[in-house]
Design brief:
This protein has one domain. Helix content is about 55%, strand content about 15%. Strand 1 and strand 2 form a beta hairpin. It starts with a helix and ends in a 5-residue tail after the last helix.
Length: about 70
């Protein structure tokens, strides 16, 4: 299921004058996964633009070498 499918599966309930959106846990997880993918795509596009502007030079684009930062992921 895509995020769009999850959004379209939402049902609405009114309780004490407030309107709530209700969806299944599976649909919620699909929606979160879809949003994370959208965010990842945006990050990749930004990185590609930076690399293109630096004419393919990772150093000029400000990218760090993996060996110099991998220890920070603990």
């Amino acid at each position: 299921m895509t995020g769009l499918d999850a959004l379209q599966s939402v049902q609405f309930v009114t309780r004490r004058g407030k309107r709530f959106a209700v969806l299944s846990a599976d649909d919620w997880e699909a929606l979160i996964e879809w949003l994370e993918t959208v965010e990842d795509v945006q990050i990749a596009r930004k990185a590609y633009k930076q690399l293109k502007a630096a004419k393919g030079s990772r150093r000029k684009a400000g990218w760090l070498k993996w060996d110099s930062v991998k220890g920070e992921l603990a």
